[in-house]
């Protein structure tokens, strides 16, 4: 065999991908892109500017502010650069922002209001709805110490969720403050940093595990369904009861919840300071016009990341959906944020006030798909190839449509069967197909089939003969009127 001849294949490589790294097709990609466009449009309207940072940061710059810091590789994906410094894929969009602000220094100007959207990576155990690579869309204000800045983040987050189609009662943003939590932790004698963190992580799982599961994590520990055991915070029965009573102090209105918290937090200085924060936020939310149903004060909210120093907030979808197993459940958290005044200080040694809000784009897109609210696939117009020996007519027709600004393609599948070509157009989500056969060429016309209108009209037709005679959704127009006729169909369906 000549060296230039291709060698025969001796075996097949197993096609597989790493767990937690999803493949995305057109419908999901379009859905995520539209979500990003809509949400960043809200951020821009509120005066925020775009900032894009790289996928990698130095690992020591990221720190250990991870929701699962006890997992291998510190929860991040790291590699060593050629200068022997360790780099890691960013696990969120906030830590890179802190590095950027510290590097820019006083030249940046403050307050600095930025938004960003992009993928992040976490080296965590993947599972249903839990990925190692996913998209986030953030907004942050650096250099604004007042709690009106936190209220602005919360109200803006609610507006962004409404902009993507959420209605009253379908979502809620829950608000709490770390200082209030610190008051409770002080009240139960949790002075050890590891114990405090274990309590916060336990409370953060309240919506997923319920009271009993969180009680186990506050106490000795808990074994999950897979057999993995999580060591608890080690609190006694009375301390567990007190922490859970605080977490369940929420009421129907922000004012009622604040009144309940005044009784539940005890007399610690941190607890009193936390109440002052929440009262200031509630007042600002009222000024911003945030409805009671959109934003509630909820003492059970605990964001997992360790850099939050004040108010924390979590966005949750409330609509119930039915899964493949027939069970009804809620989708749950799709974003959140909080105040992180100490993050920039890791680089500068000086505290810098900062607050931000993040929406999980990948999770929100998945939620919309589950709720059957994914935007209709924006497919191309398909020009059928009716002459296998001479495809130039189909190619030139598609080119004419593209030149007019329409998305279009000529069928390339090789099948001369019109039925198979129509099925292809349906699968692509095409708004219309264009047919130019011998009859149309002779008459100087084209035949256009509106696939959406045709499907609607076909439902009322009872026989094949009636269908062939009616040709639902199908029109024949002069070739010179083709572009405008197709454009009308595309715009009507959009």
Molecular structure report:
Homodimer. Its main location: cytoplasm. It catalyses: tRNA(His) + L-histidine + ATP = L-histidyl-tRNA(His) + AMP + diphosphate + H(+). The structure is a single chain. The protein is of the alpha+beta class. It has two domains: 26-370, BirA Bifunctional Protein, domain 2; 381-493, Rossmann fold, CATH 3.40.50. Helix content is 40%, strand content 20%. It has 18 helices and 18 strands. The protein has helices at residues 26-45, 59-62, 94-104, 147-163, 178-187, 193-203, 206-218, 237-247, 254-264, 269-288, 345-348, 361-370, 392-403, 418-427, 438-443, 451-458, 464-470, 482-493; strands at 49-50, 56-58, 78-80, 86-89, 112-121, 133-142, 171-177, 221-223, 229-231, 295-297, 311-322, 328-339, 354-360, 381-383, 408-410, 432-435, 445-450, 474-478. It has an eight-stranded mixed β-sheet. It is elongated, with a radius of gyration of 28 Å. Residues 65-72, 457-464 and 466-470 have low confidence and may be disordered.
